[in-house]
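Z., the sequence and structure:
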Amino acid sequence: MARNSGSRNKPSRAGKPGRPGSSRAGQGRAAAPAPAAAPAERTVQKGVQWISVDEDMAGQRVDNFLMARLRGVPKSTVYRIVRKGEVRVNKGRVKPDTRLQTGDVVRIPPMVQQAKAEQPKPGDRVQGVMEAAVVFENDDMLVVNKPSGIAVHGGSGLSFGLIEVLRSSRPQAKFLELVHRLDRDTSGLVMVAKKRSALRFLQDELRHKRIRKHYHALVAGTWPEKLARVAEPLLRYEMPNGERRVSGEGKESLTLYRCLQRYEGYSLVEASPVTGRTHQIRVHCAWAGHPIAGDDKYMDDASLKAFRAVGGERLMLHARALEFTLPGSGEAMRLEAPYDTPFGKLVDALARRSKGKF
């Protein structure tokens, strides 16, 4: 890890619905027992809370501050207790949009909250893998070289993702939040804030395009030397089966490209997104006629089959490098993440096969 100072007729494949299973009750068989009723939601009664606002909490609106601490309490209830004066800051009434300052003392009245449901805990092995993937850490943030196949957060049928694993392996951490996201099948660098102030700083840097991300992608075909930028607008939409896709129309988008190496049938390119749209690099590569190898959303069946035939195992997109300013110190940073084994092995195999041809 080095420390220095992502066809013009985009290929698209419809989602393949699964084959519905069928089952028949056996003749004369006893009926299956009805499923047990779901247990009633547990609630907990909390007394008056007095919370001192530290530097990390400062700057938040009162309503956002309350909702983060009153999980499961309806928004209408949160706004009602503020309106009735039950929430006090330094013993005085406040409005929902009042900004908290360091040293303020917030009174939260007694509340009944839903108890947190028991979540599956990531095993020791996956916690060890994620901790070993941390490539940089200080008091404000950490950066992880996320493996391909692991989501950045749980949901959509997943019990946990990168952020839940980190929280489980670091129970003493008061604050851990994703600064940005990567697709599940994309590997590489992900920033995680350890303080709210660091999260605000880094997300503001992202909004103002002061953080530079560089991806390595293995794409199908020979990438043209003159193709240095793709500015196709992007629009996100949903397939009938619920799968999310992106088409080449909609919001303004820009990706800068540089060809790093050409192989027989493939090219290794550096993709640097200037905007941050969903699937931006993947769609821009496909729009240019060079879809990313292993991309089952934007690559046609024949190309996918050819990719598997040369030993391809994964989506060949890797968040290789980050250039950013450290929160607090203002120090300029550049971090690089090595390829995982499947990515590196395939690139090496293509290089050997193509030796002397380019």
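Helices lie at 62-69, 75-83, 124-132, 162-169, 196-207, 280-287, 301-309, 341-354. The mean pLDDT is 84.

Let me know what you think.
H.
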